């Protein structure tokens, strides 16, 4: 088994800490804060995942980027190191969730298991739970890190995503976890652009460097638009229609369904706002690269 798969399996198979399994979760369940046994059985893994991402952040923040930042002309090297570590975790998270999501979406068995609206809303298996757990763990970490290093829209994105994936852990709409994580397809281009701007600024006179940045910016805009806006709005329509088809099922959760739709609508609006901002920046970069 390669180190990548070993790390994923290791985190998924860690037992819950005693204080959580014997004290905190029973108290939450007894007092009506948590009712889903599936959530109780898996929340510890999401916490481990959040701690894993924090470990990645600390390694990047204290070992990887301080020597690299010292080679740049930045006058705010501490801020650059912190931001670089955040983007490093984003890279790690993107690789993990896209790998897990594509393993599902490219599997014929996966689509066969979730061929009906009821299975797409209420169905669950080990693979979809792994996706939901890693996504929830990242967004829990993202709430914490966004309060320190990011802006308010990113904090809102983290909170909304955490709520949606908490509901998904019930389990609920786990089929759509892989679907909506296709948003992450734009992240590699976004991170390449960011690292290029921060660490390759001294090579702006290089024609090759300018063309690489130009091509990456174009790819970022195209993939962002297709994955987060076209795909995102199309899939929220599909999700709403599936909710409508199963609305009379006793397992249907009206409040949670409305929260999911509202949360995804907020994310879709944020994606439109970010895309419009990205277009302005990219156009300026393209004009500069064309000179």
Automatic annotation (TrEMBL):
<dbReference type="GO" id="GO:0016020">
    <property type="term" value="C:membrane"/>
</dbReference>
<feature type="domain" description="TLC">
    <location>
        <begin position="79"/>
        <end position="287"/>
    </location>
</feature>
<feature type="transmembrane region" description="Helical">
    <location>
        <begin position="252"/>
        <end position="275"/>
    </location>
</feature>
<keyword id="KW-1133">Transmembrane helix</keyword>
<feature type="transmembrane region" description="Helical">
    <location>
        <begin position="45"/>
        <end position="65"/>
    </location>
</feature>
<dbReference type="GO" id="GO:0071618">
    <property type="term" value="F:lysophosphatidylethanolamine acyltransferase activity"/>
</dbReference>
<keyword id="KW-0812">Transmembrane</keyword>
<dbReference type="Pfam" id="PF03798">
    <property type="entry name" value="TRAM_LAG1_CLN8"/>
</dbReference>
<feature type="transmembrane region" description="Helical">
    <location>
        <begin position="123"/>
        <end position="141"/>
    </location>
</feature>
<keyword id="KW-0472">Membrane</keyword>
<dbReference type="InterPro" id="IPR050846">
    <property type="entry name" value="TLCD"/>
</dbReference>
<feature type="transmembrane region" description="Helical">
    <location>
        <begin position="175"/>
        <end position="196"/>
    </location>
</feature>
<dbReference type="InterPro" id="IPR006634">
    <property type="entry name" value="TLC-dom"/>
</dbReference>
<dbReference type="GO" id="GO:0055088">
    <property type="term" value="P:lipid homeostasis"/>
</dbReference>
<feature type="transmembrane region" description="Helical">
    <location>
        <begin position="211"/>
        <end position="231"/>
    </location>
</feature>
<dbReference type="GO" id="GO:0036152">
    <property type="term" value="P:phosphatidylethanolamine acyl-chain remodeling"/>
</dbReference>
<dbReference type="GO" id="GO:0005783">
    <property type="term" value="C:endoplasmic reticulum"/>
</dbReference>
<protein>
    <recommendedName>
        <fullName>TLC domain-containing protein</fullName>
    </recommendedName>
</protein>
